[in-house]
Amino acid sequence: MSEAAPPVDGWGVLARASELARAGESFALATVVWRQGPSSSQQGSRAIITAGGEFHGWIGGACAQPTVVREARAVIAEGTPRLLLLGSPDQFGGAVPDGMMVVPISCQSEGALEVYIEPVLPVPHLVVVGDSPMAKTLAALAGTLGWRAEVIAGPDFTAAAATERSMVVVATQGHGDEEATEQAVLARPAYLGLVGSRRRGAAILGYLAERGLPDELLGRVAVPAGLDLGRIRHQEIAVAILAELVRLRASGALGVAGDAASAAAVRESEEAVDPVCGMTVTAGPASWHLEHEGQTYYFCCTGCRDAFEQDPAAHARKESRCLSRTSSR
Question: What predicted TM-score, i.e. pTM, was given to this entire model?
Fold first, then answer.
């Protein structure tokens, strides 16, 4: 008989998701859409996994959870959902529909799970500093893309209005340019553009350098902001700036398209193959592991570790004992 599933506070998981969304953090929502007993999970069970691998909620036991965490981090990195079938491939045969991914888990339980993992990526945040017609046009255009865009007058703008994930465009155009740009630089946004000529931009950045702002930060200011289309009207300037922001996001240059930092972390994470059941597991201090003749072995659960201890020689001979790097999907 399988162990009864612990009580799951589904509303608590959704509340946590709301907190992460308000903080602008990327995460994945995993939902059990089907189960085959014996399994400690239940249909409708949910969990949240952050880009760093933190797990909140309940999705299943010792075999399912690390697999879901690993796949969820890949989902966040790629920005695309996936549907997983967790269990022995023999349980599904040729009945697996297109678009599903079978991930073998083969501990003591013979249960199986179907888990849908969807990414929840932060909505792009654009701050336009200034009250010119161009500033208002740019914010309006960004709003049509579903971005969170706001216009703040130069005297009212401070570094606290933006975060490291924000995109900031200073469009004060002669009205307190230096002060607004200084506050924008101190916010360290993902993108900072200054509307104006290169000559005017050089003068502003030179003034800020004299005030002691680091060259490292000043060098990130794009002057002029947007695609260089020559002398154009203010509506076209807004389009040129938005086009550049879309291009940078799509390329991952701002670290917000598929979360490039998360992708790198997933690719660099170490994995090992459980020498008992053959399941791929995370290799780290928090994982079940033991030392045998100078080699560290990692396991999906205590049951596999106990089986290894009873006959280490038999399992250690398997070729799957060595660590491997996670390959990008």
Answer: 0.61
